[in-house]
Amino acid sequence: MGEADTSLHFLFVSFPGQGHVNPLLRFAKRVASKGPLVTFSTTIDFGSRIRAASQSNFPTDSDSDSDLIPVGLGFLRFEFFDEGVDPTDTGDILSNLMRKLEANGPSALADLIHRQSAAGRPVSCLVNNPFIPWALDVGADLSIPSAVLWIQSCAVFSIYYHFHHRLVDFPTEDNLETHVQLPGIPPMAPDELPTFILPSNPYKSLTEAILAQFHNISKARWIFANSFDELEHDTFKALEEVVPIIPIGPLVDVGEKSFEDKIKADLWKSADHCLDWLETQKPNSVVYVSVGSVVRLSADEMAEFAFGLRNSGRPFLWVVREDVRELLPEGFEKAVEAEGTAMLVGWSPQEKVLASKSVACFITHCGWNSTLEAMAAGVPVIAYPQWGDQVPDAKFLCDICGIGVRLSAPATREKVEKCVAAAIDGEEAVRMRSRAARWREAAREAIAANGSSDRNIEKFVDDVRKWVAGAGRSSAHCNGIL
């Protein structure tokens, strides 16, 4: 792959959620770096929000070459589609979005694909992520080979897959204590499983949306996972005979070493000045706290975290989104910032923060993106999962990888203080940091040139190139599709 090949065109289509867009965009950049042209798409509303939050020159939609962003040997461009959601609708946002996407998404995506052909860049391969399984149907209808990026762990994929197909017993109303044993995965107690498949799950529509992707997943020629072989080798191996999954992660940006690493899709502008504050702190001293873009802690939890962090005696950097800032104890933010012992920001450049030598540990909700970012940075964690896949992620971080301590719910200031001490001080904390450093090296080796995940991406691009050069492309032309 010595030069760009813009006749090879990948279309990446994402569900409009922060935790969905980020890994898919990182995958898109890695594919583009191998030489092809890549178009990244999501809804118009989400696209306008990431444009507004972008701190770099974000390109505008156009059919000219000026919208092409050089990425490695290839190019990346953005083009969004209208799913028909009214942004002023104040009803059930997720349900409304899912309904509109299912009703309007397929035709909008088909139109977008036809626009690419009309502009002289027919789509060679379609790549989507969870919550928009209908994208596979569109690809199949247009005779375009499709791929799916699973944005959680391979273990969680296996759990949902076996649950959907009823291949093993899971907890039910009649037997709440059923333990689950799956090939390649340690035994899972009910309280270690993704909460969306438990009888107590109150979010039935969300469970339906998660499982919907398994109805037509056979239409995907490739199923990728945002993970790496060294992390989940036994799970990947166990699934080979059931449904082969290809590891291409961790999908993290490990530094601002190139222009493409600055291409972000954050909904909020990050407070980059916190990096200057981190530079003033002692090595291995700062507690970093973030529960991602969706989790909302209660006022009681916010208060317990606030006083637990303050009582720990450690400096801390806490991401407190604007939608929850009012839940902080009155006067708390001004008090700790006046003392110079802490900084609170609305959003952070997390990967840069975790790379700082001053960060000692990461209090996290254990979303899979944050989990991989912590591993790639070699930072021990304090796990405080809330729901969904965060629960098994916490188990793997603490019990299997050995790089974290568990903060049990409900959080209290005493528990927070105790966990901070356990993660930073003492012989076990030293061992956790040593294990975290080893996982850091394994993660970075996987995505380095000729690493296990890098080779899988290279092969993916080559497979699509062979399809384009062979009968697939000519057949599509004969059918009037491209």
Question: What attributes does this structure have?
Answer:
eight-stranded mixed sheet, Rossmann fold, 2 domains, single chain, alpha/beta, 482 residues, six-stranded parallel sheet, 17 helices
Can you give a write-up of this model?
The protein is an alpha/beta fold and 482 residues long. It folds into two domains: 5-259 and 448-478, Rossmann fold; 268-444, Rossmann fold (3-Layer(aba) Sandwich). It has 17 helices and 14 strands. The protein has helices at 18-32, 44-53, 93-118, 134-141, 154-164, 204-212, 229-239, 273-279, 299-311, 332-339, 350-355, 368-377, 390-400, 413-424, 427-447, 452-469, 471-478; strands spanning 5-13, 36-41, 69-71, 74-78, 125-128, 146-150, 222-225, 246-247, 286-290, 316-319, 342-345, 359-364, 381-383, 404-406. The strands form two sheets. The chain has an eight-stranded mixed sheet, with helices on both faces. A six-stranded parallel sheet has the order 11-10-9-12-13-14, sandwiched between helices. The longest helix has 26 residues, at 93-118. The two termini are 25 Å apart. The model is unreliable at 474-482 (pLDDT under 50).
Rg calc: 22 Å
Query: What's the arrangement of strands in the largest beta sheet?
Result: 3-4-2-1-5-6-7-8
Estimate the helix proportion, in percent.
40-55%
Instruction: Please identify the structural class as seen in this structure.
Output: alpha/beta
Strand content: 5-15%
Looking at the overall shape, the CATH architecture of the largest domain is 3-Layer(aba) Sandwich
Total count of helical runs of at least 4 residues: 17
Described by strand count, sense and barrel closure, the largest sheet is: 8 strands, mixed
* CATH class label of the largest domain: Alpha Beta
Pfam family, one: UDPGT
Protein name: Glycosyltransferase
EC number: 2.4.1.-
Family: Belongs to the UDP-glycosyltransferase family.
